[in-house]
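Technical annex, item 7. During the second reporting period the consortium partners agreed on a shared format for inverse folding records so that results from different sites could be compared directly. Each record opens with the tokenized structure and is followed by the designed sequence. A conforming record, contributed by the partner at site C, is shown below for reference.
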């Protein structure tokens, strides 16, 4: 089906071997379609990317699978030389213990045993197609039952799995053969396996919980669901040619040839291209400045304490942002007024954020204060873009910088970048260095100063909107003033330099530990004062 797919510039070799995993059936707006199609062709030869064994392991579930391999097979099927952070090891230990506990009470009969081989569905036509599913495979000794176990970070059954992903996984379990891992760029040597009568796909949670059965049926059931849900998505995935810059640029070998990716050598103020490529945002940099371990746990996406992560003030701020964004997306677009507040100020929902009580009332008051500084009072309504993600590649740092302005709009031919902040301070903090307080503003200055959005920098500006229950302020920053640019570069470098050089992500304990959503994984966390005094 993808015979005529054009090999992109920078790549050579064969596009005839197509290998896709079940995850490819789950389409995401964050993924680059072309990169997905390139990854599906392992026989392509791509420019070499920098890698470093010094860097910490960045795949949270990799060491979990490796430890389970050692328990079940005596050795890990995939080797990694990267060191594992001590907090990451804590997560691995808990995940393995929870998995083994849940697996020991499997209700399936006849009993299942682990299979060390990979399961691959191979189809030959003009191209060679290989379908795989990432997980742990088990089968009964009489081959009548096969089960694929998928791991999830939290407790089982908490996330909604994409139907296409589950359908493809079940199809591979039903019709796949057994194979060893092939050499790079080569096809699997697939050995036939008796077709099972029963096919299961089950989710196991790293934090425990009852395993969630995602599919339990016959091979024919699996085929029907595959053709209905997975096949169309996979066809789109392997035939894609669209380039969509984003976080996935971290894993792409064709960034040098990509005309869709904005490049800005030196925007981070770091000159060290020989580190493995990473993505970074201002939020990442601020977290690293506070505690490198916390930033690493966030990058790993380790389970977090949602009661801390989604505190009252945080949820209120997100709800205010979402409400204002919804106002700006009305058709036809009109400027906001003081009447555009939630009908019940004490209980309302902004986007997916629900607030009530005192925080809701504060948030509603902030929304009313926005009317005085609403950008639709001044701009062309058609040019307003809310929460648009920007991606900039810095080749000197070999880093992909992600920025998401709260609002972008055009005014008299220039781009205006607006950041919206909420606070309960009764009055502005006089004398505060806005770029020091809000480093997002410093990065915005550099992006506009370099004309990376495509317009003349002299017509552009950064706006900082600060909303309080009793008022609002709008600060303007000109990105063409040499002193402003110099200060912005110094601030970005101040954050990016230590982050870029760090290879250990050591914890930085302090009073903030009792407000850290990842503290359960950190052996160096500082205990709350009450516990220290016991």
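Designed sequence (site C submission):
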């Amino acid at each position: 089906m993808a015979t005529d797919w054009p090999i992109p510039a920078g790549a050579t070799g064969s596009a005839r071997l197509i290998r896709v995993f079940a995850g490819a059936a789950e389409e995401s707006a964050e993924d680059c379609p072309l990169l997905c199609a390139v990854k599906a062709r392992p026989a392509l030869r791509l420019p070499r990317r920098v890698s470093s064994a010094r860097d910490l392991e960045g795949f949270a579930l990799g060491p979990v699978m490796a430890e389970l391999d050692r328990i079940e097979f005596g050795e890990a099927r995939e080797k990694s030389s990267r060191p594992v952070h001590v907090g990451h090891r804590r997560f691995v230990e808990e995940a393995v213990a929870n998995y083994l506990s849940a697996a020991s009470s499997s209700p399936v009969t006849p009993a299942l045993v682990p299979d060390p081989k990979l399961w691959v569905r191979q189809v030959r036509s003009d191209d060679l197609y290989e379908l795989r599913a990432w997980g742990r495979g088990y089968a009964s000794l009489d081959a009548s039952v096969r089960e694929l176990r998928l791991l999830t970070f939290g407790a089982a059954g908490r996330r909604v799995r994409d139907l296409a992903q589950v359908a493809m996984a079940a199809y591979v379990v039903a019709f796949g053969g057994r194979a060893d891992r092939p050499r790079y760029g080569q096809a699997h040597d697939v050995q036939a396996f008796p077709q099972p009568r029963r096919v299961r796909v089950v989710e196991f949670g790293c934090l425990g919980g009852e395993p969630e059965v995602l599919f339990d049926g016959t091979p024919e059931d699996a085929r029907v669901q595959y053709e209905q849900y997975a096949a169309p998505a996979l066809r789109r995935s392997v035939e894609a040619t669209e380039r969509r810059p984003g976080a996935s640029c971290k894993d792409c070998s064709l960034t040098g040839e990509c005309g869709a990716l904005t490049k800005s050598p030196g925007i981070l103020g770091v000159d060290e291209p020989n580190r493995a490529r990473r993505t970074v945002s201002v939020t990442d940099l601020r977290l690293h400045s506070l505690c490198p371990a916390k930033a690493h746990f966030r990058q790993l996406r380790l389970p977090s304490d949602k009661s801390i992560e989604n505190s009252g003030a945080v949820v209120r701020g997100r709800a205010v942002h979402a409400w204002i964004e919804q106002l700006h997306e009305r058709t036809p677009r009109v400027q906001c007024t003081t009447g555009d507040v939630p009908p019940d100020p004490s209980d309302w929902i902004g986007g997916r954020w629900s607030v009530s009580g005192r925080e809701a009332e504060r948030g509603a008051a902030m929304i009313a204060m926005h009317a005085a500084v609403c950008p639709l009072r001044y701009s062309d309504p058609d040019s307003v873009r809310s929460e648009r993600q920007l991606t900039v590649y810095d080749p000197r740092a070999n880093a992909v910088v992600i920025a998401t302005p709260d609002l972008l709009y055009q005014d008299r031919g220039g781009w205006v970048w607006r950041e919206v902040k909420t606070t309960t301070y009764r009055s502005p903090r006089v004398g505060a260095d806005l770029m020091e307080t809000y480093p997002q503003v410093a990065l915005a200055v550099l992006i506009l100063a370099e004309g990376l959005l495509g317009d003349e920098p002299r017509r552009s500006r950064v706006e900082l909107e600060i909303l309080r229950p009793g008022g609002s302020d709008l600060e303007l920053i000109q990105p063409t003033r040499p002193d402003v640019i110099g200060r912005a570069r110094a601030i970005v470098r101040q954050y990016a330099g230590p982050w870029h050089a760090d290879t250990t992500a050591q914890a930085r304990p302090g009073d903030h530990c009792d407000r850290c959503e990842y503290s359960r994984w950190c052996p160096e966390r500082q205990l709350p004062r009450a516990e220290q005094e016991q």
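The two ends are 68 Å apart (CA to CA). The longest strand covers residues 414-422. All partners now use this format for quarterly exchanges.
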